[in-house]
Design brief:
single chain, BirA Bifunctional Protein, domain 2, alpha+beta, eight-stranded mixed sheet, elongated, binds adenosine monophosphate, Rossmann fold
Length: 419
């Protein structure tokens, strides 16, 4: 049997892969307009970075990490998310001793050993942004607006922003205790009971209806925010409203990573079924200290590239109709013509046109089929007689009209036609 991609992974193939690249670009473009610099970190890191940075009690760390020992006996883990690595890099290179906030964005693969299903993969792509070292509600709002702009630029209409605050080290402990007390009185399985003691906020995130049905009267963090957190949250809400970004307050929104404080948000799409989140993020004021750094209040998000693409499909924005692969396609007939065509195709490319040619010594019929499949607007047919006349037959593939153009002029001729 031939090899298959591992479970939970898939290949992006043309022409869809080009669209996915375009999605990635579109999500990143607003960040560049706001002064975020590109960062690339290793695909694997010291396992402890994630254990501490993502949180020992999270599903990611307890169940989903791809951890292995390298030949030097180090425990390494394929990155399950980007934030911990970015904070590590900032601290390692002392970026936080310069002007704050440090604004960075990244793009790349993430790995989680999840239950594979549509929209939830073991290898997936995120575009992420982090602003480190400032506590300012305008920074939270800026990031949210930039993500919303990215989704809007793709034409997505059905993306909703859910917003919440998780409080800070002053007010969260009292809320956590109140929530624990409430949860301990419920009828829950053993694993969930254990979670109450380690990470009770995560129980609110449990999707099972037998759990959700019991949570109607659960205490909400919004009712326990201290004055400073409340004021901060109101400011974020006000700024979003002022720039026309609609949001829904979701007092039950908690996120799967331990490091979040204050602002938390998620972008969800109506057409994706159970895996509805196309992106999410929030403030993580304590993370740097968890990684032995100085206090570095920060905010960030990660958007799912493949899930955003699924959302576009759901809105009919990503149909798979045949797309133009190249503008011009060369059809050489014979060895001399092939050598000349090879040069001509190179000249066309240097002139800024996209061009391909028939390879493998195909005859006229096979080569013309290739021209059709390429989606090219023009085929260039070069036979022995054309070569002798220093000319080439230019065939408009839409109208089937054919004209003879001197080889010396064909690049200029086509530039005028296709650009
Ligand atoms: P998180 O890093 O869990 O906050 O996720 C941020 C975004 O990444 C989510 O909103 C999804 O769009 C995407 N994402 C997270 N996990 C997966 C996965 N297993 N497969 C595909 N996309 C994912």
């Amino acid at each position: 049997m031939s090899f298959q991609a591992p479970k939970g992974t898939f290949d992006w193939l043309p022409p869809r892969s080009e669209r996915v690249l375009a999605v990635r670009e579109a999500l990143a473009a607003p960040l560049r307009t706001a002064g975020y610099g590109y960062i690339e970190t290793p695909v694997f890191e010291d396992t402890q970075l994630f254990a501490r940075g993502v949180g020992e009690s999270t599903d990611i760390v307890t169940k989903e990490m791809y951890t292995f020992a390298d030949k030097g006996g180090r425990s390494l883990t394929l990155r399950p998310e980007g934030t911990a690595s970015v904070v590590r890099a900032v601290l390692q290179h002392n970026l936080h001793t310069g002007q704050l906030p440090v604004k960075l964005w990244y793009s790349g693969s993430q790995f989680r050993y999840e239950r594979a299903q549509r929209g939830r993969y073991r290898h997936f792509w995120q575009v992420g942004a982090e602003a480190l070292g400032s506590e300012d509600p305008a920074l939270d709002a800026e990031l949210i607006v930039l993500a919303a702009r990215g989704f809007a630029s793709l034409g997505l209409k059905n993306v909703t922003l859910l917003l919440n605050s998780l409080g800070d080290q002053n007010c969260r402990p009292a809320y956590r205790a109140a929530l624990q007390e409430f949860l301990r009185g419920l009828d829950l399985d053993e694993e969930t009971r254990a979670r109450i003691e380690i990470n009770p906020l995560r129980v609110l995130d449990d999707r099972r209806s037998e759990v959700q049905d019991q949570l109607a009267d659960a205490p909400l963090v919004v009712d326990h925010l201290c004055a400073a957190c409340k004021a901060y949250h109101e400011e974020v809400r006000g700024l979003l409203t002022a720039c026309g970004v609609a949001f829904t307050d979701d007092p039950r929104l908690v996120r799967g990573l331990d490091y979040y404080t204050r602002t938390t948000f998620e972008f969800v799409h109506g057409g994706l079924g159970s895996q509805s989140a196309v992106g999410g993020g929030g403030r993580y004021d304590g993370l740097s200290e968890m990684l032995d750094g100085p206090p570095l209040p920060s905010v960030g998000w990660a958007l799912g590239v493949d899930r955003t693409f699924l959302a576009m499909q759901a809105e009919g924005l990503a149909d798979d109709e045949a797309r133009q692969r190249v503008q011009v396609y060369g059809v050489p007939l014979g060895d001399d013509a092939r050598r000349r065509m090879f040069l001509l195709v190179g000249e066309l490319r240097e002139a800024g046109l996209s061009a391909d040619m028939a390879f493998g010594g195909k005859g006229l019929k096979g080569a013309m089929k290739g021209a059709d499949r390429s989606g090219a607007a023009f085929a260039l047919i070069l036979g022995e007689r054309d070569l002798a006349a220093e000319a080439v037959q230019v065939k408009d593939l839409a109208t089937a009209e054919q004209s003879e153009v001197p080889l010396a002029q064909v690049v200029e001729f086509l530039k005028g036609k296709v650009q």
